[in-house]
Amino acid sequence: xxxxxxxxxxxxxxxxxxxxxxxxxxxxxxxxxxxxxxxxxxxxxxxxxxxxxxxxxxxxxxxxxxxxxxxxxxxxxxxxxxxxxxxxxxxxxxxxxxxxxxxxxxxxxxxxxxxxxxxxxxxxxxxxxxxxxxxxxxxxxxxx
Length: 144
Prior knowledge:
It is a single chain. By secondary structure, this protein is of the alpha/beta class. Helix content is 54%, strand content 10%. Helix 7 links the parallel strand 4 (114-116) and strand 5 (134-136). Helix 5 (76-90) packs across helix 6. The longest helix is centred in the middle third of the chain and has 15 residues, at 76-90.
């Protein structure tokens, strides 16, 4: 099993004030997590613009040094060229936004079996399911 996470996972796993922090920390401690540079940058931007996330950023860097969270290489040109065909094939119902869809396609590209996301107000969890990824947590209250 290979677990890929989005930025909503990082916020919840590293910032205790988030709604799903307890679940995210359990997943963080249970699995080795893969992320792309886009996921890392999305989280880093939050730490740049909001002081309450700076400690979480420092904690994430330590976990990356230890190897429990690993940045994986993604072929971005290939992702962009595959985006529209994938959305037309898998996303007609979920209608993912660009960055959300790219996170899902990055997970598929690296061979992930599971996609971890707490972004229950977006369409990316549904898109991930439609592409064949197992989504963790399986269901979230208020999910589209």
